[in-house]
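Deviations from the work plan: none for this task. Representative record:
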Amino acid sequence: MAVSVRSWLANEAGKHFVLMLWLAANTWLFLDTYLLYSTGQQYHYLYQMLGLGLCISRASASVLNLNCSLVLLPMCRSLLTFIRGSHTMSTRRMRRLLDKSKSFHVACGIAICIFSAVHVSAHLINVVNFSAGFSEDFPALNLARYKGEDPKLIIFTTIPGVSGVLLVLILLLMFISSSHCIRVCNYEIFWYTHNLFIVFYIILMVHMAGGALKFQTNIEAHPPGCLRASQSLRQQQQAEDLDQKQRCKEDAHFQPHYPQTWLWVSGPLCLYCVERFYRYIRSSHPVTIVTVIRHPCDVVELRMLKKNFRARPGQYILLNCPGVSPFENHPFTLTACPTENKQTFGIHLRIVGDWTEHFAHLLLPQPRAALEILPVVHQRRYPTLYVDGPFGSPSEEVFNYDVSLCIAGGIGVTPFACVLNALIERWQSFRLQRLYFVWVCRELQSFYWFAELLCALHEKLWQDNRPDYLNVKLYVTQKDSLQSMSELRYRPLAARLQVGRPKWKLLFDEIGKSNKDKRVGVFCCGPKGISRTLHRLCNSAKSSGATFEFNKESFS
Amino acid sequence: MGRIEWAMWANEQALAAGLILLAGGIVGVAGQFRGWEFASYAIAAGVFVCLLEYPRSKRAKGTSVERTGQYCFTVCVKAFGPVTRNYYVRAFLHAALCVPGGFMLATVLGCVCLGIASLIYLAAAVRGEHWEPILPRKDTRKPVAESIKSPPQNPPPRPPPEIRRKQAKDVEGAAYDNPMSVTDDE
């Protein structure tokens, strides 16, 4: 499939631009610091002793400073949610960039790892040079105590050395446990090791203490390379031939660097700590569980009530149930937001994995033993539940396009269910003029989660004389048995149900032809295979039709 | 903490430690630093650890994703039977392998990482985990129903020859009552 320039620009240009900007900042910082140390007069004697290792280590250190400060910013989720919500502060292009915040965090993290490796290697060479090139002329410059001191001793007896070793260990632990496999299978290991970042930052801020690298303070009085009174006679005779060489007025004075890392890092670190504290305070009141409903195919709907809880369609919350596990937070997209008429908000959770299994076990009444004759009436005691959030997600943008295409796979329909709920209340108040809703499920029973909602919306739009507003296409992929929805009230859905996988190319062609020269927002919440196919289709759409802007909802 | 599989984390950590040990060993030998014999040992130990840790174990619950091209390594590691299956053996093996790496600066990082991996393997072994090979699934085809293989031997039932002749001449008179009802009212 050929890539169409207009579509590619619409989808990829923004994030590639930010990437280029970030790479340029890193490159500029690296080169600038490198040149400072290799050509700066105040580092002349230090450069003579250490050589290239000095320049590379300091240059990589400044890149590390930048990345250590940037890596925290994409993780301030409440701040990003606020930016996303304030339409005055941001345009749709900027909000689409916010979708990529996790990728930016990963990019900064990888840069930290690579430049740490460079920094450590360069400093190891420095330590060897400190030991071998012990300077008798400028004793203040030395880090080693005597010539030929064992480099291992230098490392383990100075603050920069010891803190450096600890930093590398923590960084390695964090990096190795954040591989995709561990995040998918054992998220807790990733979460607990990643929270070691606070130890990392504390040690990072004391890493420069001790002043291992010094610069010369009196350049005018003692220009580097000038003649010293203590030089031997032969050297003085050689030097007298050259008239330009001046005589030193005084000995070179050296001063250690003022630690700079805290200037870079303390801002974002404070911001992140404030945000975590704010989230903790906000989620400290338990929510009241109003109803629990069991749906087919292992799905449980939970309706809750919380004071001062406001959410927009498409946002997600983090649930914490101390009765199941005190430290685990699990994200769930809201399927119903609180409105003026209805204060409750709801989620649909699918029972897969041990946390959801245990949680559902606590929520739902257990099947009674057959021996009980008299029904025992007892108060339903729900477990305490804390809710953190809501946090923004790409699906909030559905209302900001003229035409939107929402594609859901299985339980991925939850953000769009919230959108449909909002449309049923007040579809006229949004910019959205047309919504294509594609839902692919493995089993027919799954459609019953939101069959009522879809039929109600269809009915309402029909009554309001806008039948073309909502286009529903349902696909059931399991072909084992002939199936259809036989209930009378679900006839609109039964008529729009197809067996087999959807043909995405045909769908895109159809939508492109019907909405020529418009920007269609494509929202995908489903398995990776579908989202990859859709991304490729969005980039290669024909330029004579609509432009498709791809927005993907990512899990974790 | 739920059902965490420590072995998976230990496996990733050990593989990374093997690579770091290998890299440190190469640097040590190439630079001919003091104590380069330890570096050459580290190269050998690093390669061995990488080969041992490359095949991922099958998860106790859930889908296991294998590393690219790990099948041949799986077969080799499986051939050693209980020695590689047991995580206590792996824990002590890694603990023993990592010690000589601590004597040289270039390999000290690999040594510490391998030590951490050995501790995690010990935790996994205490919780009763063991290594299971991921073998390719043999797809069993559903047995084809008998009726498909043998076509019907007899032709469908037809009315006797006199009536067939009548049908050819007189189409209206050829109509007959079906012995079985074809509507679904009943």
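Chain A is about 45% helix and 15% strand.
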